[in-house]
Fold this sequence. Notes:
The chain is of the alpha/beta class.
Amino acid sequence: MKILLFGATGAIGKLLAEKLFKNGHELIVYTRSPEKLNIENVRLRVVEGKLNELHLHDSIFDQIDAVVTVMGPPLKRNYEGMELTEAHKYILQAMIKHKIKRFITLATPSVRFEKDKNSLMTWFPPFFARLAFPKAYKEITAIGEMVKESKLDWTIVRIIAPIDKQTNPYKVSFGDSKISFSLSREQIAEFFKDSLEQKSYIHSMPIIGS
């Protein structure tokens, strides 16, 4: 596939890019800091730009098979003076314009899913986020609702406690099974890769842990 990736300079994004290249996919990476990417591959195209300049790079949405974002909500400031909500709004509009269906993005259990069961993992994260990070909570829930209302083949991957230390392979829950909140960033990247290749969890919002 040819995939447009946002957030590739972050820890999860770098791991995901490596996994996708290993499986033969092509990547277009949109970033304001290409020097932070530290990845070289003949199937990589890097487009430099800020999120609030996306409208100047509309051509990056031409002839791609999927769009993936692994940008988490900033806890203290906006991305480049442009809220992540607005960036997602532009991305979704561009996908519709260019007839791209597959979209995967990152969130937390603060974004509710109709199939969630009442449990600690579906109750505590939104409760804590509302108190500790009210702006980030508002932003991530707004993005979730926007994505759910779109007519795309979307998946919202919900994580709770990403860590660098290696963990057991990822497990999926909707509050109906017990999993550890902590999950390695490597396993989060693995789940994104699997969801793309297997077309898993379309119109779904899996919570992943270990």
